[in-house]
C-alpha cells in the first residue's frame, strides 16, 4: 500500500515538473526518458495494487469464514426455545447474506479507505508545500464533506439493521415454501406463495430504496462540494499565476492534489457510512455470537439405571407463558418399565417427551433421573443415556451409514457396529440389497426410502446409542402389514431391558404397557394398567378406548 500511495502522490509533482520544462528544454530524448521512467513507476504501482487487492480480499474471506463458523457454532448451541422463535430460512439468510456484508466492508472498503487516508494526509502535505495560501481554500470544504459523511453514517446504521431484518424475512418465506413444496403444489398454492414472497420483498425493497435516497443525497452533496472546491482553487490559482506567485505546473499539480485530497475525503466519508451500515447489519450476528451459553460440564459417564420421575412438574412454552402445557404432573417409572402416554391431541404428550430430553426446563417441580434432580446433572450426561425414535424419523441427506452412526457423537463408529445395529433393527437385509449398501445416499430427509425403511434406520440409530431411557413417538400412519410387522419386531428388540416412554396411538401398544398415563389438557387425568383403567367406566381412558375401538372397527364394518 505504501508503494502505491507514494507513487500516486509523486505523480502530480512529476507532471508539474514535466509541464514547467516543456518550454525550457526542447530536448525530445529527455522527454522520452522521463516518460519511460514514469511508465516503469506506473507498472510498479500496478504490481503493488495487485498485491494489495489480493492481500485484502483473501484476508477478508478468511475473517468472514471465521465469523460464519462462529455464528454457526453459536446457533447450533442455542436452546430449543430459540428455534421456536427463529425460522430456519431466517437463520440461513443471516449466515449467508448478513455475513457477506462484512466481507465487502472488510476487503474493498477497508483497503480503499486506508489508502485514501494515506493519500489524504500526503496530499494535504503536498498542497501546503506548493501553496499554503491556496490550501486555505480547501480547508473550508473538506470538513464539510467529512461532516456529511458522519451524519449520514448514523442514519445508515439504523436503516441497515432494518434492511437485514427485511432480507431475513424474505429468506424465511422462501424456505418455508421450498421445504413444503409438495403441499404448495398439492393445494395449488403457488399464487399465494408468490404473493407472500412478493409482499416480503416489497417491504425489504422499500427499506432499501429509502436508504438509496439517503446514499444518493450524500454522494450528490459531497460531489458538489468537491467541484466547488476545485472551481475556487482554479479561480484563485489563476490570480496567483497572474501575480507571478505560482507557475502553471504548480497550479496543475495543486489541482491534481486537491482533487486527490477531496476524492479521498469523500471516499473516507463513504467508507464511514458503509462501516455504519455493516455494524447495523451485523448487530444481530454478534449478539448471537456473544450470547452467554450455559457452560455444560463434559458428558462423562452418567451411569443411569433408567428410573425416571416427574414431581409436580408445571410448564408453559416461553412463547405462550399464559397457557400452561403441563400442570402438576406427578409420576415415576421403574428402570426397564414401559409407560404409554395417551390423551387427545394437544394434551401434552410431546411436551413431556421434550422435558425429558431437556429441550426445556420445568417452570416448577422436578424431573428426577435415578432419584437425582435433572437440574443438578449435566444435560449432556443425561442425553447420553437417552434416545428418541420420532413419529416421522428425521434423516440427513448423507448415506445410510452416516445416518445410523449419527447416534454416537463422542467417537468414530465402525461399519461392523452399524451393521450389527441394523441387523437388530431388521434393516440389514434391505440395506445390503441396495447396490451401494451402507453407502446408499438417502436423499433429503430420506426421500429415497420407504416409510418402514426410514423407521427401521431410526431404530438402528437408537440401538447403536444403547440408551437406558427410550422415547418413542409412535407413527400414526399405518404401514402395510409386512412392513408394520418388521418395524414392530425391531421396536420390541429396541425396548428390551430399557425404560420406555411411548407416545402411543395404537391399541395394541397401549394395552402392552406396564402403566398408562392419561393426559387431559396438560393434567394427569388417570394412571394405571389397562385393566385398572378400563374398569373405571366414567374415566377418560374408557372413553378414549371406546373411540379407538370404534374407529378400528369402522373400516371393517364399511
Ligand atoms: N413450541 C411450542 N410453543 C408453544 N406452544 C406449544 C409448542 N408446542 C406445543 N405447544 C402447545 O402445548 C400444548 C401441548 O402440546 P403437545 O405437543 O405436548 O400435545 P400432544 O399431546 O403431544 O399433541 P399431539 O398428539 O397432537 O402431538 C398444546 O396446546 C400445544 O399447542
From TrEMBL:
Keywords: ATP-binding, Cell membrane, Membrane, Nucleotide-binding, Transmembrane, Transmembrane helix. One of its GO terms (cellular component) is plasma membrane. Residues 1-277 form the ABC transmembrane type-1 domain. Its main location: membrane. One of its GO terms (biological process) is oligopeptide export from mitochondrion. The chain crosses the membrane at residues 30-55, 112-130, 224-242, 254-275. Pfam families: ABC_membrane (PF00664), ABC_tran (PF00005). GO terms for molecular function: ABC-type oligopeptide transporter activity; ATP binding; ATP hydrolysis activity. SUPFAM superfamilies: ABC transporter transmembrane region (SSF90123), P-loop containing nucleoside triphosphate hydrolases (SSF52540). It is found in: Cell membrane. SMART domains: AAA. It is a multi-pass membrane protein. Residues 308-546 form the ABC transporter domain. This is ATP-binding cassette domain-containing protein. It comes from Massilia atriviolacea. The lineage of its organism: Bacteria, Pseudomonadati, Pseudomonadota, Betaproteobacteria, Burkholderiales.
Amino acid at each position: 500500500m505504501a508503494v502505491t500511495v507514494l507513487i500516486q502522490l509523486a505523480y502530480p509533482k512529476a507532471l508539474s515538473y514535466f509541464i514547467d520544462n516543456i518550454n525550457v528544454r526542447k530536448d525530445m530524448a529527455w522527454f522520452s526518458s522521463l516518460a519511460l521512467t514514469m511508465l516503469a513507476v506506473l507498472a510498479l504501482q500496478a504490481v503493488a495494487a495487485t498485491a494489495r487487492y489480493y492481500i485484502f480480499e483473501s484476508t477478508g474471506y478468511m475473517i468472514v469464514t471465521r465469523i460464519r463458523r462462529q455464528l454457526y457454532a453459536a446457533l447450533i448451541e442455542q436452546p430449543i426455545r430459540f428455534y421456536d422463535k427463529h425460522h430456519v430460512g431466517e437463520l440461513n439468510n443471516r449466515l449467508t447474506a448478513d455475513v457477506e456484508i462484512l466481507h465487502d466492508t472488510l476487503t474493498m472498503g477497508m483497503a480503499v479507505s486506508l489508502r485514501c487516508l494515506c493519500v489524504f494526509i500526503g496530499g494535504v502535505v503536498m498542497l501546503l508545500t506548493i501553496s499554503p495560501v491556496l490550501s486555505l481554500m480547501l480547508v473550508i470544504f473538506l470538513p464539510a464533506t467529512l461532516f456529511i459523511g458522519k451524519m449520514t453514517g448514523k442514519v445508515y446504521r439504523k436503516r441497515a439493521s432494518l434492511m437485514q431484518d427485511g432480507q431475513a424475512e424474505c429468506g424465511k418465506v422462501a424456505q418455508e415454501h421450498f421445504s413444503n413444496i409438495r403441499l404448495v403444489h398439492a393445494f395449488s398454492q403457488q399464487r399465494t406463495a408468490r404473493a407472500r414472497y412478493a409482499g416480503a420483498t416489497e417491504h425489504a425493497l422499500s427499506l432499501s430504496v429509502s436508504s438509496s435516497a439517503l446514499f444518493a443525497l450524500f454522494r450528490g452533496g459531497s460531489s458538489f462540494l468537491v467541484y466547488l472546491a476545485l472551481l475556487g482553487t482554479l479561480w484563485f490559482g489563476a490570480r496567483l499565476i497572474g501575480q507571478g506567485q505560482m507557475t502553471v505546473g504548480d497550479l496543475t499539480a495543486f489541482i491534481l492534489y486537491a482533487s486527490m485530497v477531496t476524492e479521498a475525503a469523500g471516499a473516507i466519508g463513504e467508507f464511514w457510512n458503509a462501516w455504519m451500515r455493516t455494524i447495523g447489519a451485523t448487530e444481530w450476528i454478534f449478539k448471537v455470537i456473544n450470547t452467554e451459553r450455559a457452560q455444560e460440564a463434559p458428558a462423562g459417564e452418567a451411569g443411569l439405571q433408567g428410573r425416571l420421575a416427574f414431581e409436580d412438574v408445571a410448564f408453559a412454552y416461553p412463547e405462550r407463558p399464559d397457557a400452561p402445557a403441563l400442570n402438576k404432573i406427578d409420576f415415576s417409572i421403574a428402570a426397564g418399565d414401559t409407560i404409554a402416554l395417551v390423551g387427545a391431541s394437544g394434551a401434552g404428550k410431546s411436551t413431556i417427551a421434550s422435558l425429558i430430553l431437556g429441550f426445556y426446563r420445568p417452570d416448577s417441580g422436578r424431573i428426577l433421573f435415578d432419584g437425582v434432580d435433572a437440574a443438578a446433572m449435566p444435560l449432556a450426561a443425561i442425553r447420553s443415556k437417552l434416545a428418541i425414535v420420532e413419529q416421522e424419523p428425521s434423516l440427513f441427506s448423507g448415506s445410510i451409514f452416516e445416518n445410523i452412526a449419527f447416534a454416537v457423537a463422542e467417537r468414530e463408529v465402525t461399519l461392523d457396529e452399524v451393521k450389527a445395529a441394523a441387523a437388530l433393527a431388521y434393516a440389514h437385509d434391505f440395506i445390503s440389497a441396495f447396490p451401494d449398501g451402507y453407502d446408499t445416499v438417502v436423499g433429503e430427509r430420506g426421500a429415497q426410502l420407504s416409510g418402514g425403511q426410514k423407521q427401521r434406520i431410526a431404530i438402528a440409530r437408537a440401538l447403536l446409542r444403547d440408551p437406558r431411557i427410550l422415547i418413542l413417538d409412535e407413527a400414526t400412519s399405518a404401514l402395510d402389514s409386512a412392513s408394520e410387522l418388521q418395524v414392530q419386531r425391531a421396536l420390541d428388540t429396541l425396548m428390551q431391558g430399557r425404560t420406555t416412554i411411548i407416545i402411543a396411538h395404537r391399541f395394541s401398544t397401549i394395552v402392552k404397557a406396564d402403566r398408562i398415563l392419561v393426559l387431559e389438557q396438560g393434567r394427569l387425568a388417570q394412571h394405571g394398567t389397562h385393566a385398572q383403567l378400563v374398569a373405571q367406566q366414567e374415566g377418560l381412558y374408557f372413553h378414549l378406548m371406546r373411540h379407538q375401538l370404534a374407529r378400528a372397527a369402522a373400516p371393517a364394518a364399511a
